[in-house]
Amino acid sequence: MRSLRPSRVDIDLEALASNLRLIKAKVGPDTGIMAVVKANAYGHGAVTVARIALRNGASCLAVANMAEALELRRAGIVAPILVLSYVPVDSVAAAVQHDITVSLFDQRQAARFEIVARSAGGILKTHIKVDSGMGRLGILPDDAGALATNLRSCEAILAEGIYTHFSVADEDPHYTAQQRATFENVIATMREAGCAFRYVHAANSAATVNSAAGFNLVRPGLLLYGLKPCESTASLEGLQPVMSWKTVIAQVKTLPPNSPVGYGNSYRTRGEEKIAVLPVGYADGLRRSPRSWREVLVHGRRAPLAGRVSMEKTTINVSHIPDVIAGDEVVLLGKQGDDEINADEVAAWIDSINYEVLTSVLPRVPRI
What we know:
The chain is an alpha/beta fold. The chain has helices at 13-27, 38-43, 46-55, 66-74, 92-97, 107-120, 141-151, 173-192, 205-209, 343-349, 354-359, and strands spanning 8-11, 32-36, 60-63, 81-83, 101-104, 124-130, 157-164, 199-203, 217-218, 243-248, 251-255, 260-261, 267-268, 273-278, 295-298, 301-304, 314-317, 329-336, 339-341. Helix 1 crosses helix 3 and helix 7 (141-151) runs parallel beside helix 8 (173-192).
């Protein structure tokens, strides 16, 4: 089926493995790595990435929902898996059956989970999610003690971990320190109430690099894939991008001056121009608006987009590049020759972040 698609995403598995080894060297032997493979491993392919991660230093995995967790289990992955986000009550039995750990952040939620887990005849593993100052999912610090007290009467729930998430670890070390202090107070409160946590974690990619971890587990995401959370974040020497996105030229034609190209006739040739048509568009994840890619690589040189991105076609100006023919490789993301278009550059073009660039390449584009 891959040969039926004219575009593809290349995943550099050795780069991925190398990135994992660098992270492991950074955090040391006493700190575990929970590899974040949510959103199809940031567009890289969750099953493949999970396997490589577990072979190269990761001890457990994190996903966004039960569907992602079950995909890994069906693929034969037996390592611990934490669901970082909301889990519906009617999925708790599946979590018990397939040994999937869920996030717990509310007393009412805990009571309902207990009922279902008992009915399923097993133990539901949980990590307590603490809102230490991000304002998203998580129990508030003032409510943590009561939750811990209630958990003592829950025979079918095992609170084996506790975690929080830093909101500005890549920008504001002072606020990150405040969040950490809040989190540590919550841990102390819940331990006094009888919770014995095996796993404690807070560090995302930025905090991992900035050595703001301090607990026994880190949760790198973007670092696995060879990118930094933001420009101000320190990096790891030797980190390598894992993803590249490629297509081919479908047709090359020479148009006379003032010829319209694409929907809306928004682009017109300034003189005689050589236009190449690419069989890729917004249905593949190449954003159309309000901003799109500016350039691609052809024969190792940059070629600008010409006209609007269509659903499955895009046009580029290759007037300055000799000998371009149908079938030539085109790089939308990655290296070709001596040049490279990376996710940070694309993010600047589309006024977004590199996370979105990676995850926006849709699953219909085969990963190879």
